[in-house]
Design goal:
The protein is an alpha/beta fold. The radius of gyration is 39 Å and the shape is elongated. Among the domains are: 4-109, Rossmann fold, CATH 3.40.50; 118-233, Rossmann fold. Mean pLDDT is 76; it is low at 204-209, 211-225, 274-288 and 302-330. The protein has a 4-stranded parallel sheet, with helices on one face. Strands 8-7-9-10 form a 4-stranded parallel sheet. A two-stranded antiparallel ribbon has the order 1-6. A hairpin with a 6-residue loop joins strand 11 (303-309) and strand 12. It has helices at residues 31-43, 67-75, 85-91, 129-138, 163-168, 179-188, 204-210, 229-272, and strands spanning 9-10, 22-25, 47-48, 58-60, 80-82, 97-98, 118-122, 142-144, 154-157, 175-178, 303-309, 316-322. The protein is 32% helix and 14% strand. The longest helix has 44 residues, at 229-272. Residues 13-87, 109-199 form the BRCT domain. Keywords: Repeat.
């Protein structure tokens, strides 16, 4: 048997349509309409909550600008945002069979991606604006060719410069985002948080790497075509500056390595001038036994006797030290 979303419910059992759903409403100003929808949900077995609790499965709202919608976006909650007409569509089903509210046929009532947004673009080539406009409107948003501060909610920029961008800085209510916000939101199917996409130069290589992750229907035919000549020039200059910084960094690393090698050579010369100059022959013993030591004299294995003489005394002090290297005495 399939999942609940695919189960066919008999006509006589209409009350089960919302049996697995917990709904909350956001920003429905028409009190009469909201009350009517709530009654229908209860008749079809659904539950209602005033707040956005953990048990809530669906949020009924008109756009993405409401407080509850913003909370879902910010905290990436697994809530499904639906338009109010979803409830009417489930309630008004006709035919011999009744489908549950979560059936795929009702997915067309999900809240569109850019619902409630009026989006303006800066530094986009003229020949590509029609495709941009189509993408915005297909996903429920409004496209603004001209920058009107009283209407525009989002300004999408190819680079943080230009007349539109400079003017938008005077209006804190307008969201200024990079072009990646637009592309990634389409890919994710949800408007991502604007503060995560501050205005910056459009990185062509980064978008090309992400193309394989996007659905084919959501990909633009040629990402480079969306960047104006001025934006491309800015990107090129930034790349050149990065290359210059990289060359300077590499030159500094080479100088550090050369200095380290020079210090190592000096250190090796110092070592060769010390002691018995045995640095290059580590297998030869550096410590010698006493000349008058008897061959039959027993001493602990692995130990070597040395003679130490104090300047103020003639007596000898015999000590034993571990053998540092194996080898014959000189």
């Amino acid at each position: 048997m399939g999942s609940d979303a695919l189960t066919i419910i008999p006509r006589s059992d209409l009350t089960r349509c919302f049996s697995n759903c917990v709904l909350t409403f956001s920003h429905l100003t028409d009190d009469k309409k909201r009350e009517d929808l709530q009654i229908k949900v209860k008749r079809m077995g659904g539950k209602l909550k005033d707040g956005l609790t953990k048990k809530v499965t669906h949020l009924i709202t008109l756009d993405w600008t409401t407080a509850k919608s913003l909370y879902v976006r910010k905290h990436k909650l697994s809530k499904v945002l639906m338009e109010p007409k979803w409830i009417d569509a489930v309630y008004n089903q006709s035919g011999s069979e009744i489908l549950p509210a979560t059936h795929p046929s009702f997915q067309r009532f999900r809240l569109p991606l850019f619902q409630g947004f009026t989006i303006c673009f800066s530094m986009v080539p003229l020949e590509k604006r029609s495709l941009i406009k189509q993408k915005v409107e297909r996903n429920g948003g409004k496209y603004a060719g001209d920058f009107n501060p009283s209407v525009v909610t989002h300004l999408v920029v190819m680079a943080p410069e230009g007349k539109k961008y400079d003017l938008s800085l005077k209006y804190a209510s307008i969201k200024k985002v990079s072009f990646h916000w637009f592309l990634d939101s389409i890919q994710q199917g949800v408007p991502l948080m604007e503060e995560d996409y501050p205005p910056k130069n459009y990185e062509l290589s980064e978008s090309l790497q992400n193309q394989s992750k996007r659905k084919s229907g959501d990909m633009f035919p040629n990402m480079g075509d969306f960047v104006s000549k001025k934006a491309k020039l800015n990107i090129f200059n930034n790349k050149q500056n990065k290359k210059t910084d990289t060359r300077i960094s590499l030159q500094k690393q080479d100088a550090d390595v050369s200095l380290a090698e020079q210090k190592a050579d000096e250190f090796e010369s110092i070592l060769k001038d010390l002691g018995n100059r045995q640095v290059e022959r580590p297998n030869q013993a550096l410590l010698k036994p006493r000349p008058n030591q008897s061959q039959n004299e027993k001493k602990p294995q692995g130990m070597l006797s040395l003679t130490m003489t104090k300047s103020s005394q003639s007596s000898e002090i015999s000590v034993s030290l571990p053998v540092l290297w194996e080898g014959s005495s000189a």
